[in-house]
Write a structure and sequence with these properties.
The protein has about 325 residues and is mainly alpha-helical. It is built from 11 helices and 4 strands. The protein has helices spanning about 1-30, 35-60, 65-90, 100-120, 125-150, 165-200, 205-215, 215-230, 230-255, 275-300, 305-320, and strands at about 95, 125, 260, 300. It has a two-stranded antiparallel ribbon. Helix 2 (about 35-60) runs parallel beside helix 6 (about 165-200) and helix 8 runs antiparallel to helix 9 (about 230-255). The two termini are about 25 Å apart.
Length: about 325
Amino acid sequence: MLVSVLLFAVGLVLLIKGGDWFVDGASSLARRFNLPDIVVGATVVSIGTTLPEVMVSTTGALQGSGAMAYGNAIGSIICNTSLIAAISIFVNPGPVNVKSMKTPVIFFFLSSAIYCMAAYGLGTFPRWLGFVLLTVFAIYMFLTVRNGMKNPDAAQEEEETGKPKQLWQELVLLVAGAAVIAGGADLLVEHGQIIARTLGVPETVVALLFVALGTSLPELVTTITSLRKGHASLGIGNVIGANIFNLVLVSGVAVSLAPFDVPVENTLLNTGLNLSLVFDIPVMLLVMSLMCLPALVKKKLGRWQGITLLCIYAAFCVLQFIL
């Protein structure tokens, strides 16, 4: 058990470091070919920070652990919103750009509707649904890049530090980053399953809490950095974008490669009701609604939202071991 916990932690560290290397290498490589910052940010960097979730969910699905893929996507969204974004909102509430926020919010709830259709209506995630989710992802990326190109002033310019990297360094970072992420994901899934069996808890609990928190660390770092530089709205935007990616990219890739059924081993107080359907997914929709809808109506984020979201996350974590 102790060895599995240590290797699980090593897997988390590898995911974070591998994601770092991948983003650095890919960003430098993209700029070498003079791609605009908005294209780099919306594609290379965003996908790079979501790679840990992609690899963990895909590895889990390919190893026959649909619960790991399923729980990681939902858990990451809940963690991103009610912990990471909540910290940003609590520390630095303020106005939001409704115009730029509207499209991501619409895409999130559209993706959620497709996801819920599979979970509640089909009880399974078939391969064709993975292709649908990836199509939604492609459309979202196209619109994001197009809007960014039309409004270059709204794009976040990233700071360049140090000397420009040489081509061989960029390629090494890219390949090494992807390899380290893959190795970390493999360790995380394998030993997450062992820990779940040893503790007698469903794999979805491990995925919803520990794996989701670990794979969401890149978003946490981004949010803290944005706060430090006085760009709280950028951190919120990154969280919403990451949540969309968790539904359409992370789940889309996992389902396309290895379809799986909705996990049924975790029930509500042994009543036979599927806990993920009556608790986890509703919490996911609740925290996103609580963060986004008041902001769109009032055109600002309030500290009360941050406090409420943090309380929901704490309760969610505790209830996972009670319900």
